[in-house]
Each structure stands twice: as structure tokens, then as C-alpha cells.
Amino acid sequence: MKRILKLGTRRSTLAMIQANKVKSAIEKEHAHVTVIIVPISTQGDDDKVTPLSEIGGKGVFIKTIEKALIDDEIDIAVHSLKDMTSLMPEALILSSFLKPEAVEDALVVHTSHLGKTLMTLPQGAKIGTSSMRRKALLKQLRPDLKTEELRGNVDTRLKKCSDRNFDAILLSKAGLLRMQHSQKIAETLDPSLFVVAPGQGVIVLQTRKNDLYAQSLAALINDEEQEKISRLELRILYVLGLDCRFPFGCYTVAKNSHYEMTLFWSDLTLKNRKKETLHFLDRDKDSVIDAITKKIKVDLDLWYTQ
Question: Which CATH class, in words, describes the domain spanning 3-99+201-222?
Fold first, then answer.
């Protein structure tokens, strides 16, 4: 008899696509498991209007799912890693990291701007995004552009752009690819210049700390290199205590034991901004992370006392 494994996920179309990807991968690796997907409504999905910074940041997409996991209503929670907060309930752990198809931000333009890129959009063009990180990067690269809040699922955001509510919008490339919207992408932004959110595009599996069986199934589809990168970025977020209400980007490339990490940070006014690229070996990661987080904290303390 096959054993039942319940995956909990958000109800959005993209979240269901990601959960089905996990379901197929686990069932392929373990023939004696039947995976059932359990859609769960979250505060972030129910409120598609209020800016995330006003309703609790990224946690609004995961708290209800984490509670279902703690209460044994599901066996594994499927999250977008960028939705995770720097703090996690004591009873839970991250057990698997899936390598994304893409990590970059993508520019989607209205049909009147076909052929345009971020740098060639007309002066004063209106860009839809709710991300403080994206707003800060736009201030740095195209200070003439205007930004307005854009909430909702991927299809809702695309429709708002096509309806000419915006000249262009910014979305995760991975999400667009998973929803078969690659033709909508006007430009893939260079992540070393337009620095991505930590964990962007990465699907992560969360389990109960005492559920060794669920952990073993999650581990079957884990990408070890992605896990190293993601745990490093999560550590920075944890030390800094940041979430999506703060303008912060981190793009990491790992090759063997060498890392190249580009970081971007700003204050909430978006007037003060910095970017730095680090090169280091795995053996030196502790001292490097300690030094860069201290530097960022000094900047933030200085900016907020000005």
C-alpha cells in the first residue's frame, strides 16, 4: 500500500504549479508514496490590495501554512524561499532547496513599448511594483521613472499592465517561465546590476523537526549547491533581521568552493543606497558574512540618524 504525503501550499496558480512540480519530483524518486496537494488560503493571498509592508511583510504568505504543518494537517510545506522570514517556528526546519529555472527580475512592457528595455523606456514612464528593493534599484538606475504599487497574482499583474495601468511592470522571471509566460518578457535584467531578492525563484520545502520520514522524502529532491547558496543568504537575512519591508538584494553564484556575492541595500527613504560584490572561499564564509553584515548595520544606523 502506498503511503500518503500531504503537501501544503498557497492557493495561487503559481503556487499550485510549484507544488505539482514538487509532487512529481517526489513521486518519481519514491514509487511507494502518493502525494496529495492541500491548498491553503493565506492573509497575503486574501488581501491583494494593501502593500505588503503594511500587512506584515513576507510572513503573511507563510504563517497559515506553517501553522497547518505544526498542527499535523500537512506533512511538508511548499514555499517560495523569498517569502520566508528570517525567523522560523522552533518546531520547523527547511529540508530541501530546489534549483530555480531563473533567478533574475524580468521587465514586462505594455504593447505600446514593445522593443523597449529598462534603460530605453520613455522619460517618466510608470512602473508597477510593490517591492522596496525594486523601487530602490529603479531610483539608482532610472531616477526619472515613477513607481506605483502593484499587488495580486501573476495574471492579475500582467492584466494591469496590458490594460495600460502601467507602462511596464517588474516580476520574477522564474514565475513567468513556470506559468508559460516567457513571451511576455521584454528584458531579463542582469542580476549583478539589478540585484535580486535573496532566494528569488527558489522553491523550498519545510518540515517538522521531528518528522524524519518527511525530511527523508524532501531530501530526495534537494539540490546541494542551491542549499549552500540559500542557507548563506538566509544567514545574512537572519543576522540583519530583514524581510521584504526592507530594500535588500543578494545575488550569489557558487562554483566549487568559491562564492561571488553581490549585495545591495538602501534605507526606507530610498535616498541612500549601496552595492558591493564579494569574492570568497567556503572556508572564509563565516568571517566574510560577519564583516559585511556589520558594515551594512553601520550604514543603516548612520542613515537613520541623519
Answer: alpha beta
